[in-house]
Batch of 2 targets.
Target 1
Amino acid sequence: MSKAKAKNQRVKQFHLTKVALALGLVLLLLLPVLSHYSDYVLQVFTHALLLATLALAWNILSVSGSISLGHAAFFGVGAYGSALLSLDLGVSPWVTIPLGGLLAAAVAMIMALLCLRLRSAYFALATLAFVEIPKVITDNWNGLTRGSLGLVGLPGLPSLRLGSYHFDISGSPTGSYYFVLCYGLVLLLLVAVIFRSNLGLALQAIREEEVAAEAVGIQVQQYRLLSLLLSGFFTGITGACYAHLVRYIEPGLVYGLHFSAIPMVFAICGGRFTILGPALAALVLYPLDQFIFHPLLPAGHEFLYGAVIILAILFMPSGFWGRLRKGHLVSIKTGSIE
Amino acid sequence: MLCCRRVPIIACLLLLAFCCYATLAVAATIKIGEINPLSGRLAKQGLEIHQGVAVAVAEVNETGGLGGRQVELISRDDQSQPDVAISRAEELCGWKKVLALTGGYVDSLVGPISEVAKKYQVPYVASASLQKELTQRGNSYFFRVARLQGFVEPLCGILSEHLRPQRLAILHAATPGSTEFAHDLESCLQARGIGVKVTEKFRPGTPDFTPLVGKLASMNIDVIVSGGFSADHLLMVRQLKENRVSLKAYIGPFGIAYESFIREMADDAEYLYSTCAWSPGITQPNTEHMSQTFVDRFQSMFHRKPNTTNMHGYTSTRALLTAIKMVLQQKKSLTGPNIRLALAELDLLLPMERVAFDKRGDPRHYQHLVVQIQKGRLEAVYPPERATASAIFPMPHWSRRK
Amino acid sequence: MWTTVLVSGITLGSFYTLVALGFALIFGVTHTFNLAHGELLILAGYVAYWLWKSFGIPFLFTFPAAVLVALVVCLVLQRLFSLLREPMELNSIVVSFGVAVLLQNGMLFFFSGDYRLIRVPALHQGLHLQTIYLSYSQLTLLALSLLVIGLIYLLMRHTYLGKALRATIQNREAASLAGIDVGRMGVLAFSIGALLIGLAGPLYGSIHYLYPTAGLQATLLAITITIFAGVGRIRGLILGGWILALAESSAVVLLGASWREMVSAVMILTLLAIRPQGILGREQK
């Protein structure tokens, strides 16, 4: 009797969560209107969505069991790659953004060659150190990157024309917001496809029991490499988008710890092995930090990220969303609770 | 009986009339905006710019406003981040519809703001912007009261005319402004026949300069120009002293000509050179009274003495408000394009500079003085016509000092 | 010039070793990485600065307070770590990273982002030895670092406690079977680590300057030297410290000051490439 009741409760909770998610999506779509086109609100959520895409991309790697503390390397390379190609060669940002992503993937390849053999803890430390290399090179290679001067006046994302309609992107907060939202949704879909594919299953097997996975014939190193490359690629794309939205980059900014650490915090707090978790954490925590904590503590408001990650690791290792989902999956997927 | 019934009605009408008048009066303020880094890594300087701007606005409002209307200052914080700066600019220009913008610190923040201002045709007079790039983009709505040349030319002058170093070293921090400063100084010096022996770049926040100091010592460098900031000078000068490096002069254009630095360094600050656009006591000829008024007002508002950063905020705002006053006096409507025209024709003498803009928006007459710290005070040493003391060169060896 | 490089390399290197020693000890005994190590160092420096600036306490007397604060934070950290589940190494990295962020923001809040320097005029003099000039601050650094390292070495080699620590470092399971309370050893390691940080912090604040984000560099430094030396080998740590400092100085002299930051990164990656099993290469997983 009680078992059936518990099952009913979980089914209800499952449906409730789905409704909540749908509602959240509608709110996001309507945000510009709801906030009366407030630039402040839009800017915060645009940045939150940007960080959400970084968290999703970071998660692609973390699903394989590796934690990276140096993803800013990919972000920076993607940003600089796309910026230089569009600034110096006059290529349209729509083309240079994917190219920036490819450059970032190339850097991911280098990282893989240097670090992928290492055990997870040493891999993490190696990535922490690794960021310095592209950062210092970018900062010192004056001829190519203008060094510490940074890149000013980057071309923005050109506006889209659909018939007689004209969508301004870089010049308009609303346009930028919808652009990043679209990118976020597309990336989410891609991540879902990856996780449910053979790659995703293989990564899960590797994460859980590497030796056994190898014994079953899974090419561990190849799959880990692939996940690192994909993770780097998408992080690079986000970096490139950032460059064309803000139209100004500097080595200290794009290679900074902000872009390495915060996506990691979101992914872990949201749920490292889930699809939606990282994005949800980004969309909840970042606005929380900006709207509530920043006004209260102009200096030191980022303590929030330190606090949540400690709490997450200690008390909710599978993340908030991961915990929530686990409960549902048991009753829905397997059909029974025993 | 009739009058008793009418009194409340008349009272209401009067009240209504008063409210209308009040709202109209309030609504008729002149709205200007400012965006500064009030939090984040540039918080300290951003706040100082803001204070200068506030003093200028208070001064104008206390003397009756502009054309009888009060000036309303809307301040925003860009958190030292370019994307936040953009959204604040959008908010002020697009939503709050300010007539003009001022404030700003560092080109990475001023640049994006200027682009947004251009889009909305809102004139922007930046308080602290140095790099060439910003005035080369054909933005007719962008003006600034400072530029790098104002630092470079006087230094170039004193080095080539008076100090004439044999082995000069130029150091700079890995930031855009500092880097461009180093390039420009080097080109200027080379054009005047002074060679640079070595140029070195360091990261802001470098914890130890000993290897660099050792390298410079081994090359027998006689004059060091460092484009670093206060903290870098604090450390470098101390390590130069500790290693008894014999040096004829140490020049730091950024971050030295401040009371707080002189206090922190105590005796070690003696004989250091810097540049200064303004200081209480060092002001443009014929502006002593204006300068003192500013100092007094600043002191009463913020309970401390103002520095050159505060003055930059004050100068840009005074320039802007004067331009708005000109538009009102000419009985033209207060629109962006009209204010822009007034700014283009402005010629105003202020304590820090004679404000006039060229076609690109750069200030025509922004020049620093080279100063040297002597007996704990800033003394102007170059150009000769404004010098208050002669430069002590070479500086005494460390062992012969306290 | 190369004599200056050598001298500064050895003095700074000894200080680096002092900084790394606590990190290495904690890692060796408990198998946890403390990414907040650098921030703890800066915190100790700030405590000394605050006492020196606000209360005029002489520099030497600020050390005990710095050690106390470091001790408190380290013990809190140790408790946090004891709550962690497997995989310990990875989880400790993430949790200590969170602590580092907390400390950084706390310091930002209390002390603002301004750079702080503790001025100890006595240290600004120095002595001449032929062509070499050694400032008192360099001498103090060298002397204090070597003294403390020497004391730790004696502790590890010639006391029962030290032997117990070493046994735990070499093989936790065997040590526990031999009757050593591994948990207590962990607390001891954190305490000694706190002592070392508490001594190094104020020293750091007097020769360099303090700002909230300075910790990361210090942490990377500690990681580099620890990986170089392997676990439990103090001589290796000293050598590692000297080599790192010399490499950085040489890079400044040969390549330019702007390449300094890359040195420790290149060193870490090279070391890990040579020893992919990491420090505990000998142990079975």
Target 2
Amino acid sequence: MSAGLTHLLSVRDLDRETAIGILDIAEDMADVATRAVPKLPTLRGRTVANLFFEDSTRTRLSFEAAAKRLSADVITFSAKGSSVSKGESLKDTAQTIAAMGVDAVVIRHSASGAARVLADSNWIDAAVVNAGDGTHEHPTQGLLDVFTMRRRLHGAGSRGRDLDGVRVTIVGDILHSRVARSNVWLLRTLGAHVHLVAPRTLMPSGVDAWPVTTSSDLDAAIADAPDVLMMLRIQSERMHAAFFPHEREYTRQWGLSDARFARLGADTMVMHPGPMNRGLEISAMAADSDASVILDQVTSGVSIRMAVLYLVLSGGDE
Amino acid sequence: MTILLTGATLPDGSRSDLVIADGVIAEIGTGLRAESAQRIDADGLQALPGLVDLHTHLREPGFEQSETVLTGSRAAAAGGYTAVHAMANTSPVQDTAGVVEQVASLGEQHGYVTVRPVGAVTVGLAGERLSEIGAMAQSRAGVRVFSDDGHCVHDALLMRRALEYVTGFDGVVAQHAQEPRLTEGAQMNEGEVSSELGLAGWPAVAEEAIIARDVLLAEAAGARLHICHLSTAGSAELVRWAKARGVRVTAEVTPHHLLLTEELARSYDARYKVNPPLRRDEDVQALREALADGTIDAVATDHAPHPPESKECSWQEASFGMVGLESALSIVQQTMVDTGLLGWADVARVMSRTPAEIGRVPGYAEPFTVGNPAHLTLYDPSVRRTFGTGDLRGMSANSPYLGRELPGRVIATLHGGVATVLEGALRDPDEVARG
Amino acid sequence: MLTRTVLQQADVTRALTRIAHEILESNRGGSDLVLLGIPTRGVLLAERIAATLEGLEPGSGTVGALDVTMYRDDLRGQPTRTPQPTKVPPGGIDGKTVVLVDDVLYSGRTIRAALDALNDLGRPRAVRLAVLVDRGHRELPIRADFVGKNLPSAVAERINVTLKEIDGEDAVTIVGRHSSEETR
């Protein structure tokens, strides 16, 4: 495997070998969770700072759990009730944490590119892990999604495998989705075929240059029997900016209703990055079915984040 | 103070000496002498008429943390400029005779360049009512260019009225073409790169649709129209079409739109965030051709200073704009002269004579003519330098060229016969103010 | 640079067979024995010893793998290592005699990490250590119970262990300026 990561900013920085390496290490991490003492001493004495300018309880807790399971110390800055919410800049916040001495910063920010700006600056001398930057990327989400797919498909024989030939269909607000972007590039790196379904207004303008097929017809996509159907959350603000007329129309055209769910292949996995709008983009039945790996996605998240923290914090000092 | 310039190469390529006295060109010839004159050896240097910028932000009054009339004038002189049009988005806005007179007189006091304030088209740049255009035109500032730059005059009725109204004062409306509804929250050019980077797009059609409308309005009104900072191939096409129909439209392009593309945004480095945004390589090439064939009439810097905290942050949080007075001539040399698209006589046209004509700035119609004001700059095209913060003379450092190797250097600038730059260095404010 | 072959294929086989017998002897039989090899070559050696044990006393050849990457104390300042899988046999290790198996015993830090890893997996009754080569230069108070060959060596010398399954042939070689004495 190539040398450890300096930062994890974008899945586009991962080649096939490195991506599979991360998934394989996550397999080991998942095994740790089954032990009597579900901890490793690997990152003892290291400090991880969670810098969450955008509120997200689930991702934050997932990173905290991952760091603690590796025996690292964790400090958390979250947007509400801190100087961050009083308008302290990214630069000042970063320099404050740097003064406290941290080895890694996990950053979530509402501005695309914030993780990259932090990593390229000289404000902090730590490894940077992107936990979601605006509408750009959410690399650990992409990794945990493919990890979940791989495990569902190959079980105990997952180690070392890619997703060659696997057919993944992603449905929803692609335009504003960092999860979609991370998934598209990572799936391509691992050999999967990606199909995007959305109304034209929610497709990025440059999508024709992406290594994907696109359409606005969900029923045709389902008839094609994909291996994975990933539903993205739809935000009601999009309705007010005239991306689609109203929620009922959205659900009728692009929602995973009970009827559509019934037409899915027996082996098709249903995924959702969460949080879900039950009844809007995904029906309750579909979300709670055996085909749904949504809870596996959550479990995988901790293992993937453990693997990522291990990789960015080990390795020679440059 | 009399000045004797020897061995300068004029825009037409001929070598000449010049004697400058009492602010005007006193003599042109070869082998000239002048007693007790300050001598400037211009051997090997390209002489150009003083450059005239149609589009600068001096930030004073109101935003003196970014720039002042003094620091902006100094930056301009260092770039070879002797006149700049100061845009109206100050605080208070330049929408009354009082404010424009204040800005003009500050420029006059400092003496580095002639400051021509631009009058706002609408009160407070709010796009609702016309400002006191007539009063500003008749004030001591003699405003001829009117613009809400920073904002688009998007209301069709208001734009029509403005075009018609300024004809009474020999004015021109300079439009910042940006349909606001198509560019809400926009961060960079809309296209493949913005889709990948997850940054909201600023589509080309938002500029082109306004230009298409405005050239037809100008035609119907028989009025002059100027398009600020043209940035797309489509916009150039529209201006070409309009001129062929006889519409009295002129257009400017910035140096950065002649060189830089949207690929630079991939680093998320906010020094490259500007309005209108950097576009594709196809647009850069089309703009160069349009400047070469006269579709675009002038180069204008859109010099937009910002303090460090507005650029040392995420892209989304950053302000739009780049400084450009000090680097303009070097960029034009690199993109247009060194590529064979323009000669130095053309540079004199697009960076001095034509912008002065559009802005009705006196004294630039016949440069290097005995009896005319001595506004000129001496430029050395043969050197190369790594552009750094040391080359910036204004208050702000938000230049996209830091660390780049650029050709050429301004060696001397004369504003009305007063040297503002000598031997490549700015002269001190008290020396320039005294004359 | 001198390369000397200290053990050839036949020597390696004999050493492993002897170790298997010694394990059975010291354990008084094959019950409650679990061999855990330390990746990569330790695992192959453990499997071979387990096969021999199985042949001598059926049911005694329980074998698995114990990866110690996450327990090392030298993660900073070394290139990133990829962990290998840890495979604990179905019966677990609680109450068992665990025999750790590795190819070379040197500073002892790998074994210290292995002891920490074992600690998190369960509570063995006893832990023993079998190595193919002991080259001395211990930095911690760690001792091997079963040794294929003692090879006192200079720090500047490199000891290479190759195994049929991954390197094509079984051999132990020393690469360095000085030849070293053999002791048994």
